[in-house]
Each structure stands twice: as structure tokens, then as C-alpha cells.
Automatic annotation (TrEMBL), chain A:
The gene is nuoC. Belongs to the complex I 30 kDa subunit family. This is NADH-quinone oxidoreductase subunit C. It catalyses: a quinone + NADH + 5 H(+)(in) = a quinol + NAD(+) + 4 H(+)(out). Keywords: Cell membrane, Membrane, NAD, Quinone, Translocase, Transport. Its main location: membrane. NDH-1 is composed of 14 different subunits. Subunits NuoB, C, D, E, F, and G constitute the peripheral sector of the complex. Transmembrane segments: none annotated. Residues 34-156 form the NADH:ubiquinone oxidoreductase 30kDa subunit domain. It is found in: Cell membrane. NDH-1 shuttles electrons from NADH, via FMN and iron-sulfur (Fe-S) centers, to quinones in the respiratory chain. The immediate electron acceptor for the enzyme in this species is believed to be a menaquinone. Couples the redox reaction to proton translocation (for every two electrons transferred, four hydrogen ions are translocated across the cytoplasmic membrane), and thus conserves the redox energy in a proton gradient.
Amino acid sequence: MELTNENVLGKIIEQFGEENITDAMNPDGIMTFQTNRQTIHELIKYLRDDKELQISFLTTMCGVHYPEQKDKELCMMYQLHSLRHNYRLRIKVYFPISDPVMPTLTDLYAAANWMEREAYDFYGIVFAGHPNLIRILNVEDMEYHPMLKQYPLEDQTREDKVNTFFGR
Amino acid sequence: MSDSNKDIKMAEAPEGYTGAGFFATSFEKVIGLARANSLWPLPFATSCCGIEFMATMGAHYDISRFGSERPSFSPRQADILLVMGTIAKKMGPVVKQVYEQMSEPRWVVAVGACATSGGIFDTYSVLQGIDRVVPVDVYVPGCPPRPEQILDGLMRVQDLAKNESLRRRNSPEYQALLESYNIK
């Protein structure tokens, strides 16, 4: 079967139901749709193990922070690739910042281990079931998650930068 | 002296008393002369400035002319720590450990904008200048500095080494400086 966005989406909706697969669109020709926390693990397992699809390569995953979206402040984005068919797709899961818990994918892909640690490091997203959820890129004693937009990007210990020189 | 030795450059003799068959000067000056003309660098190169230093080590700029012939990639025989490139906060303790493992007398050169002040990377993850971790003798500006500037920084260290008193490292000021960095 030739993998096109329409028939892949049809297959996924048939498997998981319309209420769990929403907002499908094609930015840059890569199909993007949303799902929820209950579905994501099963969905990625299904894409990996399905004989027809063979979407069995986790290209990347990362967190996103949208502070202005009520109860959808955090997002986890997954990009998958079928090496067999050269077909890519993108999955997004939105969830509130007050409850930043996601199911882990480490039992499906070993690559998810470090990527989930990175998402935890920068966004504070907790992956339930992760074997070793500790910081990976920042210093161990950092007390916040720097990519959340309420924290300043600049180093706060500089004394030689006067705001007037920077048009602020 | 045969003609082939005409190219050899001699280090200038320090001040002293010359007479028939003898030359007298102070111990400090002789040791300073020896130290200044055999500074072995420890290149701590993390980014682009490290590439400039490689050019400095190459045949065209030839850091060997200054007696810095051998880059010591171990702190054991190194005299001068050249930190070149962005030092992330996670790398800070490593720089400090390398500095602590060097033996006295030791000098530190911060090469380029990143090592001196964090450079353009005013970010939560980057150390805003290595002088927050180790004491620095010479700062080389530039982003990245040309090899000539790195050589100039090395010559500034040579000046320091030449004119340093033998007792400087035992002075209370120096001990207090190390104390302020929590270096034993």
C-alpha cells in the first residue's frame, strides 16, 4: 500500500476512534494531528508494529510551552518516520502545566530515554515509568526548568549590562 | 661560530655585572628568563578560539618561537592555562580542577570574548567569564582573536614571568587570592 496522509489517517482513526485523533493538518506536507495522553503510547506502539505502516523510527520528540493556552500550556511533540516507505508524521499531545505527566516511550524506543530526560530537564515534564528521570544537559543543582517562558533567558548574575544600552 | 648559526636568536641577557670570565646577576632574573622562554601551554580549547590557537601553533605563526613548543595536554608539566572558547556552567568545575592540578608557578590566559566574559552567550547555561572560577592573568579580546593576538597574550605572560619575584607565590596577597576562589 502506498502511504498517503489520507489513508494513514483513515487507518489510525479506524483503530483509535475519532474522539482520540483530532485536528489533523498538513503543514509542510507532513501530517500533524493531536491525540491525548491515554492514547499516545498505544498509538505509537501500533504504528511501530503494524505490518502495513511500519512507522518504526522515532525521529525526535520534544516539549513546547504555550503559556497563554489555558489548560494546554505544555505540549509534547513526536516525529515518526517509516524508513520502509519514507513517510513521516508528527503527533502532538497537549496537557496542563499543573499536571505535567506523560506516559514514557522507553519501553518502545531506547532513543526515547535521553529525549525524555531532555524534556524533563527543560520543561519539567514528568514521564511516568521512565527508568532514570534526571537532568541530562543542565547542571544537576539547577532549581528550575529554563525553557518554561516565565524564566529569563539571560544570566541573572551579570552586573555590567545596563538596560539603557540595550534599548530596554 | 659557523655561518649556519647566524639565524639563532639569543635571549637577551638580564642586567648584571660582566667581567673577564664571569657574569653576575640575581637568581630571580635568571629563573625569570628561563621560565619566560619556556612557557608550556595547556590548551583548554572548547570552540572557535581553539581553532585560532591551532593556527597559532602552525608553521606560519609558530608559537614555538616563544619556547611554547610543547602543548602539554596534561596539567603536570603545564605552566600556562589557555582557556579558549565558551565554558558552560557544567564545564566550570572541570576548568577549576585542571587549574588546581597544575603546579606553581602557573598563569592563566582567557582567550576570546567567551572565556573572558561569556561573550555573546549571555544565557543561563554559560559561565559569564572564567574569572568566576579561576584567577586570570591575561585577557585576550576578540571574537575570535587572530593568532597575532594570542601571541600578544603569550608575550604579556612572558613579561609577567620575567618580572615576577620568586616569593610572589608565597605572599599573603596571593594566598588570599586563591582563598577567594576556594583553591587550596
